[in-house]
Amino acid sequence: MIKIVSKNENFDLPLVIGAFSDEAISFLGDFSKDLNELVEQKVISLDSSKINKIPTFKKIQNKMVYVVGLGKKKEYTQKTLEKAIKSLTLSASCDLLIEVDTFVGELDALLVLKTLIETNSYYEYNFEECKSVKKAKKYTFNLKTSYKNIKELDEFIILGEIVNKTRDLVNKPYNYLSAEDLANYALNMYERLKSDKLKIKIYEKEEISELGMNAFLGVNKGSVARPKLIYLEYNGKDEELTALVGKGIMYDTGGYDIKSSMSTMKDDMAGAATVLGIFEAIVTNNIKRNVSVVICATDNRINGEALLPDDVLTAMNKKTIEIISTDAEGRLTLADAVCFAESKNAKRIIDLATLTGSVVTALGDYTTGILGNNQKLIDDIINASKIEDEHMWQLPITDYIREKVRKSNVADIRNATGREMGTSSAAAFIEEFVSKTTKWAHLDIAGTAYRTSPFYQEAYGATGVMVKTLYKYLKEN
């Protein structure tokens, strides 16, 4: 938790300062001499990310000082700072008072504050909703800074909180978060945001049927839980509408093409959670954009009515789809979702989905795949991801791949083409439902939305990936 404090507050808390290994400590007056002696004696290490806890023996007003090593000043980067704050967050055992100016070095002060706030928020996260005894403790980082425009920092604090809300949604098991629960979450968010620029509509099964969204309803056939079409719209500016489409498969068994392992399949609605997070950030920070959210929410389960391989469905745009695999269900819901987004006059569509295992094979756990029909849109999103340190890589949609998707003997297209080029063929399938005049990007977050073996000491489970990137993109484009 972050709190901005004045220069005269919280002297009873441990004080945190940053220090470079090639520069003498001078911030703490006479006590700095003691610290420099400890550095010379190698009691204190100023190597990058080292945390040194030193009692002050009443030589300054704070009883304890944490000296955070930042390494050599000329090698100091935002990434160095992020690692140092991560170490501090993970090792904290009480509230702390942080002298932000000592962490600036030659970096931009606002960038330092942004990195500090967002890194602390990300690494203090733990999901304990389902535990009877909550063990995780959150400590307040009280920031003292000479930066003048404190109001700017609210945006970073809000964004950190929303990323963690997104992680909460993805981490909830299905019996805590069904399609109906997600619709209620969207309604509660709408009521909480209280803006006359907002609209919301939750479509029930009968209304979805009237819209002709039979690809979406086909996925729902095997479930006793009713589907929900969630639509939110924010009119922040007189401009074209951008739709954020999120895959909302609340739980995925694979249908009759049943998965060999269903562990973590509660995360198949991560796209839906992400677009809700981005939308909340846009509205809360009063960003002047016109943005909508479209989510086709259902689970993919099996009963006597469930979708079968060889079935043929008719989507909202009247294209027919041969079902090759019932486990290629997410793209069926996305097909109708992008059609619905266009029916609401969206001229730019960005969809997010935990869509294919192929993207994990190709790019791993820390790189999101991006594909689409407009290179500038793709380039601008990738540029935003670089700023927010959420790595992306563009994958192709070639004419050969398109022809493979269209190669059905009984329908217009088929919903799967086998193991080859899985990510690209899934994107090519969705592309069939996007008008050529609509700018469209598809983000496959199957590898990046949820981690069972975190490499960088982040919490197990949901990551909230792409909230910051797409918020940045929409804010500036």
Entry summary:
The chain is an alpha/beta fold.
What can you tell me about this protein's structure?
34% of the residues lie in helices and 21% in strands. The chain folds into two domains: 2-150, Leucine Aminopeptidase, subunit E, domain 1; 157-476, Zn peptidases (Aminopeptidase), CATH 3.40.630. Strands 7-8-10-9-13-17-14-15 form an eight-stranded mixed sheet, sandwiched between helices. Strands 1-6-5-2-4-3 form a six-stranded mixed sheet. It contains 14 helices and 19 strands. It has 477 residues and is of the alpha/beta class. It is elongated and about 85 Å long.
CATH class of the largest domain: Alpha Beta
Q: Counting H and I runs of at least 4 residues, what is the number of helices?
A: 14
The largest sheet has its strands arranged as 7-8-10-9-13-17-14-15
Q: Would you count the extended β strands for me?
A: 19
Rg calculated over all Cα atoms: 25 Å
Task: List its salient traits.
2 domains, 8-stranded mixed sheet, 34% helix, Aminopeptidase, elongated, alpha/beta, 14 helices, 477 residues, Leucine Aminopeptidase, subunit E, domain 1, 6-stranded mixed sheet
Topology (SSEs and partners):
Elements (H helix, E strand, L loop, with lengths): L1 E3 L10 E5 L11 H10 L10 E5 L8 E6 L8 H14 L4 E4 L9 H15 L17 E4 L7 H20 L7 H15 L4 E6 L1 H6 L3 H7 L7 E8 L5 E12 L17 H15 L5 E11 L11 E3 L5 E3 L7 H14 L2 E8 L3 H7 L4 E5 L2 H13 L4 E3 L4 H8 L6 E2 L7 H10 L7 E6 L5 E2 L9 E2 L4 H10 L1
Helix pairs in contact: 2-3, 3-4, 4-8, 7-9, 8-14, 9-13, 11-14, 12-13
